[in-house]
Design goal:
Blueprint: H1 4-9, H2 13-24, E1 47-51, E2 54-57, E3 62-65, H3 68-71, H4 80-90, H5 101-113, E4 119-123, H6 126-141, E5 145-149, H7 159-162, H8 173-176, E6 179-182, H9 187-197, E7 201-206, H10 218-229, E8 232-237, E9 259-262, E10 273-277, H11 279-282, H12 305-320, H13 323-344, E11 351-354, E12 362-365, H14 374-386, E13 389-390, H15 402-425
Parallel strand pairs: 3-13, 5-6, 5-7, 7-8, 8-9
Antiparallel strand pairs: 1-2, 2-3, 4-10, 9-10, 11-12
Length: 445
């Protein structure tokens, strides 16, 4: 197995990969956050495999992985208990032309976790689930406006959300105008939105929380306003379900949504998401009603057998192991390592990893002006990669163990040393290889 220094000294498979990928794939990757522009120049061009909390690039170089498939793999890569069930299922036929037993078994298992919901529909990603909820809400209410959390980093690939970003090319202005913003934890902004648009709001879409908890009364006030105005409330728990609480983050606050979107951790990396809701809403997309039909969710691969079996196995794993507690322990260890390194090297609040929830640390690297800096953050991530740690963000998993945490702690300290040098030098120019990472949502390259 080659070392990182050996890879840097000789051309290898990874060094040729980028040109090959960009020649046949727009952006060189199928997800914007996997793109070359999101990472330092020394980032692995591609990963060949993963196991547990580690990944290997095309040259066989090993990294401790904190990206975990874009927050998708919360147990660990290639978990045998999950993969064995998935392989067994696909060998019985991956795609069949009538419903399968696995569809019903998983639907029942998911609804057992979310007993306030009556029905579930499977899809392949969070965007599918959220946009299906939007269409359903519009059909049920007869309204057209969507209230959305403007502070949310991402809610859908579809026009109703992308049209609210600076990267809105291709989205008609008339579509963008149908999405109206409010700000998470800003009750005044929610009240203003309802005062101006309440009788046209079909649905309100937001994450229950990210790294910041909802302030007391915020979710309750939002729930009350939705009920008073006949607006459907969707909680986007694509990231938070299976990470914060097995019954969803909303269970921690006792506020019930009308519709609930889950995904990512529900199948430990297999492509699966779901929209859940009460029968009176969800059945509008079904056959047992006499109202106008709603084209709700129809995905050829939504019920592929391997993903459904993987999700059943994932739920069993959670029930047999305290995964969520381990996520918090491992995330807390990273936050402490960053705080200690920052203190040791006199960085103060220029380098932090903090969160109201240890299972989801938020890494922040500031520039000379004290504001978040893409250049200084890229330098920090670059130095972590140099030490064998892939941490574009912090996604703790069940399989991060003492060895991975020790290696990560050492790498964070070494990277903080380089950051301190950059602050002393007044910039990153002499220390950063290549260009700083860029925001996904930007108008021009």
């Amino acid at each position: 197995m080659s070392t990182r220094l050996e890879r840097q000294a000789r051309p290898g498979a990874a060094n040729a990969f980028g040109a090959r990928a960009h020649r046949v794939i727009p952006g060189g990757a199928h997800t914007y956050s996997r793109g070359d522009d999101q990472l330092p120049a020394n980032a692995p061009s591609a990963f060949a495999r993963g196991k547990g909390a580690r990944v290997w690039d095309l040259d066989g170089v090993e990294y401790v992985d904190w990206g975990m498939g874009i927050n998708n793999v919360l147990i660990g890569h290639a978990e045998d208990a999950i993969d064995d069930e998935a392989v067994s299922a696909l060998r019985r036929g991956q795609a069949l032309s009538r419903p399968t037993l696995l569809e019903v078994q998983l639907a029942e298992a998911v609804l057992d976790l979310f007993p306030e919901m009556d029905m579930v529909k499977f899809a392949k990603n969070g965007s599918d689930a959220n946009t299906a909820a939007v269409r359903l809400a519009r059909a049920v209410t007869g309204r057209d406006l969507i209230g959305y959390d403007a502070a949310a980093p991402f809610l859908s690939i579809h026009d109703w959300f992308i049209g609210t970003t600076v990267m809105r090319a291709g989205v008609p202005d008339a579509v963008s105008a149908l999405s109206v913003p409010f700000t998470f934890n800003d009750t005044t902004s929610v009240e203003r939105m309802f005062a101006e648009h309440g009788k046209r709001l079909a649905i309100v879409v937001l994450e229950v929380c990210r790294d910041v908890a909802p302030t007391p009364g915020f979710l309750e006030r939002l729930r009350s306003l939705c009920e008073r105005n006949g607006t459907i409330l969707l909680f986007d728990e694509i990231v938070t379900a299976f990470r914060y609480h097995l019954n969803g983050a909303h269970a921690m606050y006792g506020v019930r949504p009308d519709l609930l979107a889950i995904g990512k951790g529900m199948a430990n990396g297999y492509s699966l998401s779901a929209l859940l809701g009460p029968r009176e809403l969800m059945e509008r997309g079904g056959l047992r009603h006499e109202k106008e039909r709603v084209f709700f969710l129809s995905t050829t691969n939504g019920p592929e057998q391997s993903a459904l079996a993987a999700s059943l196995a994932t739920i069993r794993f959670y029930q047999e192991h305290d995964v969520i507690a381990r996520l918090s322990v491992n995330g807390g260890a990273v936050m402490r390592a960053v705080a200690e390194a920052s203190s040791r090297h006199g960085l103060g609040d220029r380098l932090t990893a903090s969160s109201d929830f240890a299972c989801r640390p938020s890494l922040r690297v500031a520039g000379l002006d004290g504001l978040p800096s893409p250049a200084f953050r890229t330098l920090f991530v670059q130095e972590l990669i140099r030490a064998g740690i892939f941490m574009p963000w912090v996604c703790p998993s069940y399989r991060h163990g003492p060895i991975e945490l020790e290696r990560t702690t050492e790498a964070i300290d070494a990277a903080a040393t380089v950051l301190a040098r950059a602050y002393e030098a007044g910039g990153v120019e002499q220390l950063l290889d290549g260009e700083p990472a860029k925001p996904v949502f930007r108008r021009f390259n």
